[in-house]
């Protein structure tokens, strides 16, 4: 399980974009989003770095 905190994810539009970005990296990924805490949990065989880069490219850079 990969868990990322995305401080710039603040609304429903952000949730849709983040979900689409994760699924573009791995169409089979399971995505759970907790908007109030800005957390995304991803269940995937892909590496964390692949998701972090894709999300950063979309403007949702994970917190360190």
Mean pLDDT: 97
For the report, how would you describe the main beta sheet?
3 strands, antiparallel
Strands of the widest sheet, in order across it, are 1-3-2
How many β-strand stretches? 3
Q: End-to-end span in angstroms? A: 17 Å
Q: Which spans of ≥5 residues are poorly predicted at pLDDT below 50?
A: none
Explained architecture:
This protein is of the alpha+beta class. It has one domain (2-57): Alpha-Beta Plaits, CATH 3.30.70. The chain has 2 helices and 3 strands. It has helices at residues 12-25, 48-57; strands at 2-5, 30-34, 39-43. It has a 3-stranded antiparallel sheet with strand order 1-3-2, covered by helices on one side. Helix 1 (12-25) packs across helix 2. The radius of gyration is 10 Å and the shape is globular. The two termini are 17 Å apart. The mean pLDDT is 97.
Any descriptors?
alpha+beta, 64 residues, 22% strand, Alpha-Beta Plaits
Question: How would you summarize the topology of this molecule?
Answer:
Layout: E1 2-5, H1 12-25, E2 30-34, E3 39-43, H2 48-57
Antiparallel strand pairs: 1-3, 2-3
Summed up:
With 64 residues, the protein is α+β, with helices and mostly antiparallel strands. 38% of the residues lie in helices and 22% in strands. A hairpin with a 4-residue loop joins strand 2 (30-34) and strand 3 (39-43).
């Amino acid at each position: 399980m990969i868990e990322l905190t995305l401080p710039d994810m603040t609304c429903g539009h952000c949730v849709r974009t983040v979900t689409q970005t994760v699924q573009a990296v791995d169409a089979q990924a399971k995505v759970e989003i907790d908007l109030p805490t800005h957390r995304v949990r991803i269940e995937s065989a892909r590496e964390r770095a692949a998701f972090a880069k894709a999300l950063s490219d979309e403007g949702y850079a994970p917190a360190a």
